[in-house]
Specification:
445 residues; four-stranded antiparallel beta sheet; alpha+beta; single chain
Amino acid sequence: MDPCPFVRLTVGNLALKIPVATKPARAIVHPSSSPCFCKIKLNNFPFQTAAVPYILLENSNFPDGQFQSVAATFRLSKDDIHKLAGKSIFSGKPCLKIAVYTGRTGSTCGVSSGRLLGKISVPLDLSGAESRVVVFHSGWINVGKEAKIPPAEFHLNVKAEPDPRFLFQFDGEPECSPQVFQIQGKIRQPVFTCKFSSRSTGDHSQRSRSLRLDQDGGGRWLSSFGSERQQRPGNARKGWSITVHDLSGSPVAAASMVTPFVASPGSDRVSRSNPGSWLILRPGDGTWKPWGRLEAWRERGSSGGLGYRFELIPDMGAAGVVVAESILSSVKGGNFSIDLAAAISGDSVRASLSPVASPRVSGDLGMAVWQHGTAYRGFVMSTRVEGEGRCSKPTVEVSVQHVSCTEDAAVFVALSAAVDLSIDACRLFSQKLRKELCQNHDLAT
């Protein structure tokens, strides 16, 4: 089955040149010593915030050798493109709107700390973007009051490019051992089945048998990556696993809870300092091999969001590489994503302002992944999960460039299931879980 067409709209190479008066007033701060940022908005998508570097006014060109950073990314499905085109009948072409500010991001006493310098609109014509790269703007543009001579100038690149993805959806909640369908338009085709298991004992030997691990091969990974903690009955969630099978019944990926989700002393929540963890596995050489490790915990506060950290485990025993770290709303749910193109930009401003929607990752992450021999680049995957108490049938998007066999797709399905199950694993221990998630001692209470 063919992948679904997607378009990736990126905004990058931001820079700002601001003229300075020959006789500056005492209150004026030279722009090179003052931070600048912008807010980027597309239609009904959440706005994204990015830092804007300052360039001396004498420089007419974007500096040679400047890293081609990505400041904001919008992922557009075919339906999104049609909606944008539909609005253009009455209001002209859809536009990308950018508001440029001087000063720091955030607010003080409810008042925004930044001062608006000006606004920019870039018209978008997305017809044909599903099959070819389209550049909408590349270069400098005046911003602010035109009466100023010389005016302030803002540099940006805006382009759209094809980004086809495979789309999968669980036919039920992961703990109910559902089928997984591949979706292309209105066509739904079963491709995987899931088997969820919850054991009352968490010993590694039983877990190894259930996942068909041998003691000389994959079994040792479970003991090296996980830990069995001392806990009181009812104050730990452990022994969960989910195995993904292809339609022939062969196991092609798995997620196993290797570190129990335990309530911190004196509380009924899983803390960041003591997270639970999953090992994501894929078959290889007749056994299971670790592919990634997911840690999850419950954040402090009344909202109690789900904090997570995911790392890839390269071959040859190299140290894991963190590729996603963020917070999901435990009430509304949210998107878990691995996007190395966004990570390479090193945009800590955008990440800190939108923790629920985008991953927080280190600026040199993309290069670190390549140095460890992991062949992932650009957008990798994303999954949508629901919050506590809601019926969750996760959807999974996987970039076509990262799928060359069934196991490649299945491992992301297993990761999606682990993220979804972590919402339940991190629920307050004063709350009851559904029966499919309960162990024997839970059912007896």
